[in-house]
Design goal:
Number of helices: 3
Shape: globular
Structural class: alpha+beta
Largest sheet: 5 strands, mixed
Distance between the termini: 27 Å
Strand content: 35-45%
Amino acid sequence: MRRIALVTLVVDDYDEAIRFYTEALGFRLVEDTPRPDGSRWVVVEPGTDGQGPGLVLGRAKDEAQRARVGDQTGGRVGFFLHTDDFARDHARMRAAGVTFLEEPRHEPYGSVAVFQDLYGNRWDLLQPATTA
């Protein structure tokens, strides 16, 4: 079986990114391992079951990478966080200081609202519609 296991997100600082993803978004820290070159292998994931994909939080190493922090998808929504309880997670995330760029919408495909992560990357918080 093939699946996408990890996706890299370039960040400015490991610790502030870990704090945002674990505290504001409720992800869990899977791994934070120092590497010989001074970088760290940091993985967070939204679920508890290890079914992924998780995010590798990679600190920008040079100017070219720093220029991409917060705009890795050219201003488009690039990440989709599914939930089984939109109202609960939306309220919890707002209380934690997450910036939502719109009011929740109820579309044929589900309940959705666009939010920004710590660096400005756009995400959908999405509870997919149930199918009969």
